[in-house]
Amino acid sequence: VQVVNEEMLDEQDLNEKKLVVANVKITKLQNEAIENELKLKAAANLENEWLRKFSIMDDIRRTLHSQVMKLSGNIRVYVRIRPALKWEMKANNDACVTTKIGTKRKFDEVEESPFKFLSITDRDSLSQGADLSKNILVATEPYKDRGGLSQRKSRWKFGFDRTFSPSNSQEDIWSATEPLVQSAIDGYAVCIFAYGQTGSGKTHTMLGSSGSEQGIIPRSISKLFGAKDEIESTCTHPTEVSLSVELLEIYNDEVRDLLATPSKHENFNIKINETSGNVQLPVHTKDDITQLLEVAHKRRCVKETQSNAESSRGHLLFTTHFVVRRTGENGFIRRGKLTVCDLAGSERLAKSGAYQVDLLKETQCINTSLSTLSNVIEKLQAKSKHIPFRESKLTRILEDSLGGDSKTLAIVCCNPLPVHFHESLCSLRFASKVSKVELKAFSNFKC
Q1: Which residues of the chain have pLDDT under 50?
Q2: Most CB atoms closer than 10 Å: which of 91, 145, 257, 278?
Q3: What are phi and psi of 244, to 5 degrees?
Q4: pTM as predicted
């Protein structure tokens, strides 16, 4: 019994020592837990402080970005001379002209490209107070037979915010356009429209294809959803960003909703810069918009003419609404809108061959609406008291984009071939008118 008692006492002492060691470890772990909790609180406070500073810096960036945009002009003009396609170059090389001595010579032997892009060192008018912020484009009248007389090639010099030669890529166009998409994210109304004759590359500039040839619309979609993820993850308060889209086509001066069922395409009431009764769908991913664009592309009216195998017969208007709200609160932080317009190209019947009844009516409506747009630009340039926005459905919808409450970009596309020079010259003259219009833009956001 005594031996058993001693063994039990020894075991008790051992357990007491183990208990003391365990208590020490528990105390140590408790201290480490308290220390880690303090570190977590400090890290959370530091994160909140950095998010607060990030929010302040984003407000500063937004303000500075807006000031830079205003200095650049709330309406700006880019001109793009697209590269010639292989079949066009072959047709151009196969075409011949008759010289004064009766021989035949190919175009590439007697003339160069009618467009020349001047660098700042090539300019000869610096002493005349030229605007150094403008890119200079010189258009030279191509060769023509003057019955043995010497050539008299007229030249026109234009200055635009940006000019893009045939060697410039889709990425170059996007790099120059991206700041305006950022303005839409910052709470402004932004309008980007492409203008030019049929076959000048407007749809390729706006929509493009896949990979590096993506156009402005798919690249804008990627940037908008990237901004959505960044805003929702970095705001100090729970914030929700919602996007919704509209897709309209103005065909024969009638507004058609490309997202509605075919039986409900038309008959919408038009207010300033918007329509009522059309479909506005919320989107949550880039794939949602891609699918909508595919549906709209199938429903859009596209036909073949002698000038263009895939000629758009109506004006496409793609609008994205970008709204930032705080979760659980009324009102919004900011609301931006991006409208991208792929205008149908102007046509000359002698070149397009659109003499069929349907094609002829479409051509007349396209040219009439573009003429009205040009007339509106002229009135804005002259600062006329009456601007004829109501004379066309196109100008009615674009009223706020051209009338003041927007940051607007006109991308004027031109065909590089000499045979289309006079149509390209008309587009350049239109671009020159647009560049002289002054707008004021207002933001739709609050602190």
Answers
A1: 96-110, 126-127, 441-447
A2: 257
A3: -145, 155
A4: 0.76
